[in-house]
Amino acid sequence: MKHVFHVPDLSCQHCVNRISGALRDLGIESFEVDLVNRRVTLETEDPGKVLEVLDETGYPSEEISA
């Protein structure tokens, strides 16, 4: 299922790289990190785990669309 997360602290390419690395470490290979709109979009069956990983990486987020 497709999920969209708002990441308010997403502000630069370094942030994009950190989030991308954390998602790959989680085993997610297909995702979009949208720096302009501060959103992460991906397919997952466990959005709670994604939120947890984003928080642990330093980017507290909230799901805005499922």
Radius of gyration of CA atoms, rounded to a whole number: 10 Å
Instruction: Sketch the major β-sheet.
Output: 4 strands, antiparallel
Average predicted local confidence, pLDDT: 97
Identify the strand order in the major beta sheet.
Answer: 2-3-1-4
Low-confidence segments, given as residue ranges, are: none
Fraction in helix: 25-40%
Report the end-to-end length measured between terminal Cα atoms: 7 Å
Describe the global form: globular
Look at the helices and sheets and give the structural class: alpha+beta
Strand percent estimate:
25-35%
Number of helices: 2
The helix/strand series, from N terminus to C terminus, equals EHEEHE
Oligomer status = single chain
Number of beta strands: 4
Fill in the keyword field for this structure.
66 residues, alpha+beta, 4-stranded antiparallel beta sheet, 2 helices, 36% helix, globular
What does this molecule look like?
It is built from two helices and four strands; from the N terminus they run βαββαβ. It has 66 residues and is an alpha+beta fold. The protein has a four-stranded antiparallel beta sheet, covered by helices on one side. It is globular and about 30 Å long. The N and C termini lie close together (7 Å). The mean pLDDT is 97.
Secondary-structure blueprint:
Elements: E1 2-6, H1 13-25, E2 31-34, E3 39-43, H2 47-57, E4 62-65
